[in-house]
Write a structure and sequence with these properties.
Shape: globular
Strand content: 5-15%
Helix content: 25-40%
Number of strands: 4
Order of helices and strands: HEHEHEHEHHHH
Largest sheet: 4 strands, parallel
Radius of gyration: 18 Å
Structural class: alpha/beta
Distance between the termini: 23 Å
Length: about 260
């Protein structure tokens, strides 16, 4: 993993969500590089049971982005905090935008970055329901633009194994072992009591998009948050930062690999 050259401060307020770069920081970081890479966290604002905040997916995406920015010379961006959470609409506090809107927001951010000299973008997705982000990357790449979606399922699986997460990715669907562990590591003050007794498993969710989450869980939890701990959270983030190296090499090089 690349180290040192990417380290920079982030704002301490708002959970460290807002980067504090100046325009000169961006200019100097990009000097002499084949292609500068921006990192855009995309989260959500949706229920995560009674013990994790509505902003959990945003906090997770930002924690991953901070780990990346500490290890690689990327251009960190503030997060997109509301996205496609329609399957969680039965719970108070959940807010969504349409897939069309999210598609347009990410496209326009990428377009704006290119106009200011940042030619590559990695979208760090913290919410599994943001299916449209895959379409954004497919379409942009077909136009010859330099964009990627991170983490892939393989990156999460490698992180799960590295951290000793006991729950499978299928079972660990929402507010489970992985999300609880990352927040216990990155934002322990935001995890409320009760996660230790909130486990609920519903592996067969084939009608989720038709009937929503409320048809499968009363609490909003699908997974085993009781297995979460801060050490696992740190190992998950470290593994994801390692996995990001391949994405950075691919997008920052002046030429595409054969």
């Amino acid at each position: 993993m690349t180290s040192g050259s990417g380290t920079r401060p982030t704002a301490s307020g708002a959970g460290g969500l807002v980067p504090v770069d100046t325009t000169e920081d961006v200019r100097s970081r990009g000097a002499g590089r084949g292609r500068q890479v921006a990192v855009l966290p995309v989260g959500s604002f949706e229920q995560h049971g009674a013990f994790l905040p509505l902003a959990t997916d945003t906090l997770v995406a930002c924690a991953i982005a901070r780990e990346i920015a500490a290890a690689y010379p990327v251009h960190p961006l503030p997060p997109v905090t509301i996205s496609c959470s329609h399957e969680h609409a039965a719970w108070p506090g959940t807010v969504s935008i349409s897939a069309v809107t999210l598609h347009a927001v990410v496209r326009e951010i990428a377009d704006s970055l290119r106009r200011s000299g940042v030619d590559a973008l990695v979208v760090v997705n913290g919410h599994g329901g943001n299916y449209v982000l895959g379409n954004v990357v497919q379409e942009s790449s077909a136009r010859g633009e330099h964009i990627a979606l991170f983490p892939a399922a393989e990156d999460w699986e490698a992180a799960r194994e590295h951290a000793g997460v006991r729950t499978s990715l299928l079972t660990d669907m929402h507010a489970g072992e992985i999300e609880t562990s990352i927040l216990l590591h990155a934002h322990p003050e935001m995890v409320k009591e009760g996660y230790e007794k909130a486990d609920f498993v519903a592996d067969d969710r084939r009608h989720l998009l038709t009937v929503g989450m409320s048809a499968y869980t009363e609490s909003g939890v699908i997974g085993r948050p009781s297995l979460g701990d801060a050490e696992k959270g740190g190992k998950l983030l470290a593994s994801l930062a390692d996995s990001f190296g391949a994405y950075f090499s691919l997008l920052s090089s002046a030429e595409r690999p054969e």
